[in-house]
Design brief:
The complex is a heterodimer of chains A (631) and B (447). In chain A, helix 15 packs across helix 16, helix 17 crosses helix 19 and helix 23 packs across helix 24. Chain A has 631 residues and is mainly α. In chain A, strands 1-3 form a two-stranded parallel sheet. Chain B is an alpha+beta fold and 447 residues long. Chain B has six helices and 30 strands. In chain B, strand 5 and strand 6 form a beta hairpin. Classes of the chains: A mainly alpha (631), B alpha+beta (447). Strand 2 of chain A pairs antiparallel with strand 1 of chain B. Chain A: This is U3 small nucleolar RNA-associated protein 14. Chain A: Its main location: nucleus. Chain A: Keywords: Coiled coil, Nucleus, Phosphoprotein. Chain A: InterPro entries: SSU_processome_Utp14. Chain A: One of its GO terms (biological process) is rRNA processing.
């Protein structure tokens, strides 16, 4: 029942609605015929009558159009929508002004926010106004204002400075141009002019001042000489820098002194070997004359003044004094005829050979003791001297390491027995001789002693005695073979070829029937001969060689195998930002460090994209005033 | 591996300290086979060292007796910060000394928003008690002992209020709420009202570069753009979830970032607001507050998941995450004006100060150090695709609840994708290609 009722109600409602609508339409229909008089109709009738009413007609149409718009009111929602659409277009138009700025910021490699002009400095008034009530606060405020004024002035000065620097730059450019003029005549004229002016100036000065000026000039010239431009492999400058600017360098001088001593000693030794006696007087005379010459030379050089650099002069002085003292010591010792003199010489000599520090006075005593100890240890020397006396005359002249060694070896078993006797027999003169000889032979002995003790048995020693020349020659030949360059190169090439062979793909196992057609009527292939296999291999190796990086490098082997340890330096997958691996490599193989770049490019490469600084307020972006005016 | 047939040299030429030697460099990379390996090692060390020296937390400002609801750093003075709490208290802080300068009982109820004027002379606050207070900042500092200071002006709003934001150029400010209102210093009533849609607006922000544009997020899940000149809204976009907060990019005033309740942040280009240009994911709970760095290159977000994250403006994932054992839900975050520090106000009544770059040294740094750090950064940038370096640089320690939630989300995402894929495979031709996620997140664009 309820349902029916509901339906009935609905029907009734619908009926009512329909009735209403009908009534509305009736009213409308009633209205339209009443509205008979119409401007449009009037114009129509007038036109039909043939009257000229064009102006009236156009005027009517315009008014009618306007009225039509006014007559149809919009809903609030529609009006809002229109408004919003207008606002959106305006906003979008307005926002375009930011696009160039945003684009510029996004594309720029570096944005430095610390360079903003509008950096605020906090004032006292910002922190508290309470301070201003006090006299102190007022004073401080005034002081701050004054400081600001001064800063502003400084800024202005800075501007003028900039102008000056600009002028300077211009001037520099001009001078550069002038300096690039290559005409000799121009330069001569210029030089003459300059010299004249300088002379005029010098004439006005007092002698003391003049001297100072000259010294200054010298200094500047010396400095110029030592600049990098002049130091290119120039022997003079390199020595000047090293040893203090003498023609004969200190090192040369000292080595000369040493050589002198060596020569003297060698002479003495030879004399002794030939004559069996040491001609002491002749030796002394020669030594004294040469040393005196050297001393004179040193004195002359001390008087000279070549450098104006303090540090170079100092070093030079020290060095000269040292060499002088050495020479003087030698002289005094030789003149006095003291037996210890030569011994002392030797100790100093040793020092200078071992050390380049030139501090003989401090360590001199220690070294003396050392040499004494060493000399006492080596006792076979006296016997060796005795032996040489017994040699024939032809052998005497050809004294060398070989013979001395063989002699020494002969003496070895008897050495210990003779030791005690020798010690007693030694006189002071003999001792001196031993020292001289020992120093020369000592090195040779030390070299060979170890080898001999290790390798040679008693039987071998006997063989050596019988035919030492042959054995030694054999050994030398072997030694030469080892050192042979060709041999070494061949070994290296072999190694390289081996490396290439390893690169070849493994050959399949030669099993018969596998990898070939089978069946009736098929010819059997002949297996390859050894020669063919070898030639194939050589071909393959040549192909491999062409591809290798070290193909043209004779002395280098570059292994191109993949190294597992190296994998950590590589990126497994191409990042999505990059189109291909070449692009990625181009950007990521460039080293950034200062070891592989110049300092400027290093700093440029490592600049951060955004630079901010604590304490610098960054303001929101603004459109430049000039652009704003245009908008 | 390279083998050389060695050439022996005699030691005749000896160099001394007095020698002036010119260093010649060969730029050919073949001459420097170990350059890459050496730089890789340096980059590795740099990333490790950065992790070791990462100490982002600088200190906390404590004094509020209720949760901190809103904070804002002064846009003019680097040392000042204003904060409002749930009990209606406003505090002004001196950050270097970490003490309260002014304490105000400003509102009867919760403080909804605080804002500084651009010149740092005015402070505006809005409260849940439908009042807006405008303070003179120097005057506040002057009478710092008076906790019941009267504001310069007190405005009464008819409807409820949301946050307040001061215009960057004019002496105006806008408030969110049932109606978005624009107020002038001199007028007791709002000079403009924007009402569009039914529900209230939770957050409004002025464009820092353009004084006419306002953007707002509403409770009916919309992001709305208003133009003050046109005296009307421009358009809005409805999303799947509601947004709590937004921030304008100050260097690119076309872009805004909104923090959504679906734990993501979205970047919108206001020219094409139909869909977001980027989704920033990482939070696991609703984003409560976002703030842009003044350099415009990164923004910070505070979330209900008790973490702060720093996102690069053009990356989908966060660069840094900060959390503390005692830090509760973060209600508000703010960047310092020099883009060096981040401040966060949380429910645990504290305001925390964080470094933007966790391992950066605070204080004066000499040029050598600057150069060295630049080199290290460049190396890290160069080798950032390298798996080992990437792993170390990416790793962050997270509390357990975060890790678990993160894993859970990942699983959910994977299973959803799997389900989708399987459905497509089993019913070929019945499914269309899925929409991109950016489109999925937007429900409707309304003009």
């Amino acid at each position: 029942m309820g349902k029916l009722n509901k339906e009935q109600r609905l029907e009734k409602q619908l009926a009512k609605k329909v009735e209403k609508q009908d009534a509305y339409q009736q009213v409308k229909l009633q209205e339209t015929p009443e509205d008979d008089f119409n401007v449009a109709n009037l114009i129509q009738t007038l036109e039909d009558q043939g009257q000229q009413i064009d102006s009236v007609k156009t005027q009517y149409l315009r008014v009618h159009e306007k009225a039509r718009i006014v007559q149809e009111p919009e809903t609030q929602a529609e009006r809002d929508l229109q408004e919003r659409k207008v606002a959106a277009t305006v906003m979008k138009q307005d926002i375009k002004k930011w696009l160039p700025i945003v684009k510029k910021n996004r594309e720029s490699e570096r944005i430095d926010f610390t360079k903003q002009r509008n950096v605020q400095i906090s004032k006292i008034s910002d922190t508290s106004n309470a301070l201003l009530n006090n006299h102190l606060g007022v004073k401080l405020q005034n002081a701050m204002e004054e400081v600001e004024k001064v800063e502003q002035k400084q800024e202005l000065n800075g501007q003028s400075n900039q102008q000056k620097s600009n002028l300077q730059f211009y001037n520099d450019l001009k001078m550069k141009k002038i300096s690039s003029i290559k005409s000799k005549i121009y330069k001569q004229i210029k030089k003459k002019k300059g010299n004249k002016e300088k002379l005029k100036l010098m004439a006005q000065l007092t002698p003391a001042e003049r001297r100072k000026e000259i010294e200054k000039l010298r200094l500047s010239r010396a400095k110029e000489r030592i600049t990098l431009r002049h130091s290119t492999k120039n022997k003079y400058v390199s020595q000047l820098l090293r040893f203090g600017g003498d023609k004969k360098s200190l090192k040369q001088q000292q080595s000369f002194l040493n050589n002198l001593k060596h020569q003297l000693l060698a002479k003495a030794q030879l004399n002794e070997l030939e004559d069996g006696e040491f001609d002491e007087e002749n030796f002394r005379e020669q030594a004294i004359s040469q040393l005196e010459q050297e001393l004179l030379d040193i004195e002359r050089r001390e008087k000279e003044k070549q450098n104006n650099f303090g540090f170079l002069d100092k070093q030079k002085k020290q060095d000269l004094q040292q060499s002088k003292s050495i020479a003087q010591k030698l002289l005094t010792m030789l003149k006095s005829g003291n037996d210890d003199a030569i011994q002392l010489d030797e100790s100093e000599n040793q020092e200078q050979n071992s050390d380049d520090n030139y501090e003989p006075n401090e360590n001199g005593d220690k070294d003396k003791q050392k040499t004494n100890v060493e000399n006492n240890e080596f006792n076979g020397r006296a016997n060796f001297v005795n032996e040489t006396k017994q040699l024939t005359e032809t052998q005497k002249k050809k004294i060398d390491a070989k013979t001395s060694l063989s002699n020494y070896l002969n003496q070895e078993p008897e050495k210990q027995q003779q030791q005690n006797k020798i010690e007693k027999q030694l006189t002071s003169q003999e001792e001196k001789k031993q020292l001289i000889e020992g120093l020369n032979i000592k090195n040779i002995k030390q070299k060979y002693e170890k080898q001999v003790n290790q390798k040679l048995t008693k039987q071998d020693l006997k063989k050596l005695q019988s035919d030492p020349d042959e054995l030694l020659q054999q050994n030398l030949a072997n030694f030469n073979l080892v050192l042979d360059e060709d041999e070494n190169e061949n070994a290296f090439i072999d190694e390289k070829i081996k490396d290439m062979e390893e690169e070849l793909p493994p050959e399949p196992a030669n099993t018969k029937g596998w990898g070939s057609w089978a069946g009736f009527g098929i010819k059997e292939k002949k297996p390859l001969t050894q020669e063919q296999i070898l030639q194939n291999k050589i071909k393959k190796i040549r192909e491999v060689q062409k591809k290798r990086q070290d193909a043209k490098l004779d002395n280098v082997i570059i292994s191109e195998k993949r190294d597992a340890k190296f994998a950590k330096y590589l990126v497994p997958k191409l990042p999505s930002e990059f189109a291909n691996s070449q692009q990625f490599d181009q950007l990521h193989t460039l080293p950034l460090g200062p070891e592989w770049n110049s300092l400027t490019s290093h700093s440029a490469l490592t600049q951060p994209q955004i630079v901010t600084k604590a304490g610098v307020v960054i303001n929101p972006v603004r459109i430049p005033q000039q652009v704003n005016k245009l908008i | 591996m390279v083998k050389f047939n060695t050439i022996c040299r005699s030691g005749q030429e000896r160099s001394t300290n007095a020698d002036i030697t010119k260093v010649y460099r060969n730029p050919n990379p073949k001459v420097h086979p170990l350059a890459h390996a050496r730089e890789y090692q340096r980059a590795l060390v740099a990333t490790k060292v950065e992790k070791i020296y990462a100490q982002p937390f600088l200190g906390a400002l404590n004094g509020h007796s209720d949760g901190v609801s809103c904070i804002e750093a002064c846009r003019f003075n680097l040392s000042k910060l204003v904060s409002g709490s749930y009990d209606g208290e406003i505090r002004i802080w001196d950050i270097p000394s970490r003490r309260t300068l002014v304490q105000l009982n400003a509102h009867q109820q919760m403080v909804k928003g605080v804002s500084f004027s651009r010149d740092g002379m005015r402070v505006v606050s809005s409260g849940e008690d439908k009042t807006i207070n405008l303070y003179d900042f120097p005057q506040l500092l002057e009478q710092s002992n008076n906790t019941f200071q009267e504001p310069l002006m007190r405005y009464l709003s008819k409807g409820t209020l949301g946050n307040v934001d001061h215009n960057y150029q004019l002496s105006q400010f806008a408030t969110a709420g049932q109606v978005v209102q624009v107020w002038d210093y001199e007028r007791p009533k709002p000079i403009m009202k924007f009402q569009w849609g039914v529900d209230s607006v939770s957050c409004v922000k002025y464009s820092p570069a353009d004084s006419n544009l306002i953007c707002g997020t509403s409770m009916d899940r919309c992001v709305i753009l208003y133009d003050v000149r046109a005296e009307s809204a421009i358009h809005k976009v409805a999303m799947l979830n509601k947004s709590q907060c937004l921030a304008w990019n100050p260097i690119e005033p076309l872009n805004i970032v909104i923090g959504n309740d679906d734990s993501n942040c979205y970047t919108y280009d206001i020219r094409k607001i139909e869909q977001p240009t980027m989704i920033h994911k990482d939070h696991i709970s609703a984003v409560m507050s976002v703030a842009f760095s003044s350099s415009g290159r990164e923004f910070v977000s505070g979330s209900f998941d008790r973490t702060i994250r720093i996102f690069p403006f053009n990356k989908g994932y966060s660069r840094e995450v900060y959390h503390g054992q005692r830090m509760q839900q973060v209600n508000s975050v703010s960047f310092s004006a020099d883009a060096q520090f981040v401040y966060s106000g949380s429910n645990d009544m504290n305001i925390r100060i964080w470094k933007v770059n966790a391992s950066q040294k605070v204080g004066t740094i000499n040029q050598r150090e600057v150069n060295a750090t630049n080199y290290r950064q460049a190396l890290k940038e160069k080798f950032k695709y390298n798996p080992e370096i990437k792993r170390i640089a990416k790793h962050r320690h997270l509390p357990k609840y975060l890790m678990n939630k993160k894993k859970q989300r990942q699983e959910m995402k994977e299973s959803k994708n799997r389900k989708q894929r399987n459905a497509e495979l089993n019913n070929p031709g019945q499914y269309e290609a899925p929409k991109p996620e950016k489109q999925q997140r937007v429900e409707q664009f309304i003009q």
